[in-house]
Amino acid sequence: MILLSLLGISVVAALLLAFIGDWKFAPEVNISCSLLTFLVSLVLALQVYAEGGSVAGSTYFFVDHLNISLVVLTTLVSTTTAVFSRRYMRVEREHGRVGPMRMRFYHAMFQLFIFAMLIALVTNNFGVLWISMELATLATVLLVSLYRTPTAIEAAWKYFILCGVGIAQALFGTVLLYFAAERILGAGGNALLWTNLSRVSGQLDPTVMRLAFVFLVIGYGTKVGLVPLHNWLPDAHSEGPTPISAVLSGLLLNIALYALIRCKALVDGSLGTHFAGNIMMGFGLLSLLTAAFSMLRQKDIKRLFAYSSIEHMGIATFAFGLGGPIATFGGVLHMLVHSLAKSATFFSVGHAAQMHGTQEMGRIRGLIRGNPAVGWGMFLGVMALAGMPPFGIFTSEFLILTATMKDAPYLAPLLLLGLTVAFAALFRKVQPMVAGLIPSWQKPLTAANIPVFLHLALVLVLGIYLPSFLARWFQLAAEILK
Amino acid sequence: MTLSFAAQLNSLLASLILLSAFALLSQRKILGLVHIFAWQGFFLALSTAVIGFASGEHHLYISSLLTLGMKVILLPYILYTLIRKLKIHREIEGIVNIPATMLIGIVLVVFSYHLTAPIRELSSLMTRSTLAVALATVMLGLLMMVTRRHAVTQILGFLAMENGLFFAATSATYGMPMVVELGVALDLLIAAFIFGIFFFHINTTFDSLDVDQMAKLKETD
Q1: Phi, psi (rounded to 5 degrees) for A63
Q2: Is A343 within 8 Å of A246 (Cβ atoms)?
Q3: Fewest Cβ atoms closer than 10 Å to its Cβ: which of A34, A274, A349, B199?
Q4: Distance from B220 to chain A by nearest Cα, in Å?
C-alpha cells in the first residue's frame, strides 16, 4: 500500500502537470507532490527501521537495507530540486528561453523521471529494472533539449543514441540472466525476481553468468558514465536546464550503479571468483583518472562538474568492485554524499550561470561579493566534492582508501593520484570564480538557498556523525551485496 | 508439423532476419530502409509464431501479434509518415565503404557464434542455434548506428537492434516473461514518439537530418 502510493503520487503528478504545468502555481504543485513522495518514503524507511529485516512488499516490489536509503535520497533530492527549479525556471522564463508549453512538458517529465527511478529502485524484477532504466532515459532526453539550441539538440541526440545502444546491451545481458535462471527456477516471471535469484545464485551457470555480466556492465555502465562509455554525459549535463543536470548527476547515475551492483552480487554468487569485481575496479579506476585529468582542461562550468560526477561514480564503482565490508560500506555512503553534494553544487552553479549570462568559467567572477549565499554555497559544495574533511565525502573516500590499502595496496597510489588531480582541478577552477571583485556584467539574483544549504548540512552531518541506524543499514547492505 | 520441420523453418526465418540485417547495412535509400525493416519485423513475428506453435508456449502468440502490430505496421507507418512530412523520401544517403562495412559485419557474425557457443551447448531448446543470429542482428544494428550519418538511419539501426534482442529472448528462453515484454514494447512506443519529435527539431535547427552537422560539442583545449 505504502509502496503503491510512493509510486502513484508521481504518476498522478505527471498527468496533472501535463495539463497545468504552465499555470502560475505549477512549481508549487510540483514541489508539494515531490514532498508528498518524500514523506511517504520516510514512512517506508520507518517501517524498515522498525521491522529490522527486509520488507518484502509482494512479488513485484521489495525494500531492503540497500535500496531504502537510495529511495529516501531520491525523493529528498527530487524535492529540493523542485524547490530550486521554481526560482531557476522563473528566471529562464523571464529570459524567454522556455514558453508555456515547454513548462508543462518540463514539469510532467520531471515527475515521470522520478517515477521511473523509484520503480527501478523498488522493483524485484530484473526485467522491470531494465524497463524503468530505459524509461528514465527517455523521460530526460527531451528535457536535455528543452532550450532547442543547436548544441542542446546535439547533446540530447547523443544521449538518446549512446544510451540506447548501451542499454540494449543490458537487455541482452538480462536475457542471458533469464536463460541461466530459468534452468533452476523454471520459466515465468518468478525466474527474474531478485528475492529468488539471490537465494539460488550459487546454482546459476557460471559460463552464462560471466557472459551476461559483460553485457550488463557495458549496458548499465554506459548509464553510470564509466569511461570509455561516458561520451554522452558531459554534453547532456552541460546543455540541459540546471535542475535536470542536478538530478541526472545526483540520482540517475546512482540508480544505474545500483542496477549494476545488484547484478554483480548475483554473478559473484554464481562464479565464486573476483571476475565481476575486477572488471568494475578497472572501469572505476579508468573513470576516476580520465575524469580527473579531463577536469583540468574544462572551460564550461557545467562540464567541469559533469566530469566530477564521472570521477565520483568511478570511485564508487571501484569500491563496489573491491568488495568486502569496508569498501562496500564506503561505496554506499559515497553514493549518498556525492549525490547530495553534487546536486547542491549544481544548484549554485545554475544561479552563478544565470547571474553572468554564461556558463563559461572565465567570465564568472566575484561570486562571494556579488551574492554571498551563491558564492559560499558553491565554494563549500566544491570543498565537499574535493573530499575535504569534515564533509561526508572525506569519510567515504577515506574508508575506500583504507580498504584499498588492505586488499589491493598496489592500486592505492593510482587512487590517490586521481583524487589529488581532481582536487587540484576543482580548486584551481573554482577559486577565481568565487573570490575577487564583481565584474560589470554580473546581475543581481534572488537565489534559492534552502536546497543548497540543506544538502551541505546533511553532507556535513554524515561526515561528522553517522547515525547508528544508518551505519547498521549500510553494514546490512554490504551483507546483501556480499 | 514435426518438431524438426519447425526447427528448420525457424532456422530459415533466422537466416532471413540476418539477411535483412545485412540489407539494412547496404541500403542507401531512406524509404528502402523502412521497407527492409518492416520485412525483418515480419520474419521475426513469423518465427515467434512458429516457435510458439512447436514448443506449445502459447504466450508467444501474443508476442508474435505484438511484434506484427508494432514492428511491421505501426513503426514503419510512423516512420513513413515522418519521412513524407519531412520531404526526405527521395533522399539517398551518401555513404562510402559499403564493402568494408559488410566485411566487418561478417566478422561480427562469426564473433557472435563464438560468443554464444557455451550457451548452445547448455541449452536443450530447438531454437538454441539461432541465438547466435540474434546476437549478430544486435551487433549489426549497432554497426549501422555507428557507421551511418543520417538521423533516420541511426534510428532504424536502433530498431533493428531491438529486433535482435527480441529474437534473442525467443531463441534463448522462448521469450521473456510477459510483463517484461509488454514493458519493453511500451518503452519502444515512447522512444518512437521521442525520435519523431527529434526528427523535426533536428530538421528545423540544422536544415537537414545529417547528424554530421551536429559536431559543435567537442572537448575544448
Answers
A1: -130, 130
A2: yes
A3: A274
A4: 7
CB-nearest partner of A154 from B123, B154, B217: B217
Contacts of A406 (CB under 8 A, 6+ apart): A326
Q: Model pTM? A: 0.95
**Minimum Cα–Cα distance from B214: chain A residue:** A154
Q: How far apart are the first and last CA of chain A?
A: 30
A179 touches chain B (CB under 8 A): yes
The residues facing A55 across adjacent strands are A63
Q: How many Cβ atoms from other residues are within 10 Å of residue A392's Cβ?
A: 25
Which residues of chain A make contact with B172, given a CB cutoff of 8 A?
175-176, 178-179
C-alpha cell at A200: 539460488
DSSP B113-145: HHHHHHHHHH--STTGGGHHHHHHHHHHHHHHH
A235: chain B residues, CB-CB within 8 Å: 217
- DSSP for A422-474, please give it: HHHHHHHHHHHHHSSPPPTT-------HHHHHHHHHHHHHHHH---HHHHHHH
DSSP 8-state code for residue A65: T
**Cα–Cα distance, B180 to B161 (Å, whole number):** 17
Using CA coordinates, name the residue in chain A closest to B207: A150
pLDDT at B221 over 50: no
Give residue B203's identity as a one-letter amino acid code: N
Q: Which residues contact A5 (CB under 8 A, 6 or more apart)?
A: A40
Residue that has been written with the C-alpha cell 588531480 in this structure: A421
Could you give the maximum distance between any two Cα atoms of chain B, in Å?
66
Q: Which three cell numbers stand for residue A145?
A: 533539449
Provide the 3-class DSSP secondary structure of residue A134. helix
d(CA B184, CA B103): 31
Q: B142 to chain A: which residues are within 8 Å by CB?
A: 165, 168
Q: Which residue has the cell 549535463?
A: A237
Q: What is the H or E stretch that residue A226 is in?
A: none
Q: Which residues have CB under 8 Å from A4's CB, separation 6+?
A: none
pLDDT of A116-169, one tens digit each?
999 999 999 999 999 999 999 999 998 999 998 999 999 999 999 999 899 999
User: ∠ at Cα A151 (A381, A162), nearest 5°?
Assistant: 80
Q: Is B177 within 8 Å of A192 when comparing Cβ atoms?
A: yes
Tell if the CB–CB gap between B205 and A141 is shorter than 8 Å: no
What is the gyration radius of the CA atoms in chain A, in angstroms?
Answer: 21
Identity of the amino acid at A142: L
For chain A positions 193-212, those within 8 Å of chain B (CB to CB) are: 205, 207-208, 211
The SS3 assignment for B210 reads strand
What's the start-to-end Cα distance of chain B, in Å? Answer: 66
The CA distance from A283 to B109, in Å, is 27
Q: Predicted ipTM?
A: 0.94
**pLDDT one-digit tens code per residue, A213-246:** 999 999 999 999 998 999 999 999 999 999 999 9
Helix, strand, coil % over all residues of chain A, rounded to 5 = 80, 0, 20
- By the CB < 8 Å criterion, does B197 face chain A? yes
CA distance A149 to A155: 10
User: In chain B, which residues have their Cβ closer than 8 Å to the Cβ of A153?
Assistant: 198, 201-202, 205-206, 214
Contact residues for A29 (Cβ-Cβ < 8 A; gap 6+): A13, A16, A17, A20, A23, A107
Residues listed for chain A: 482
Reduced to 3 states, what is the DSSP secondary structure of residue B82? Answer: helix
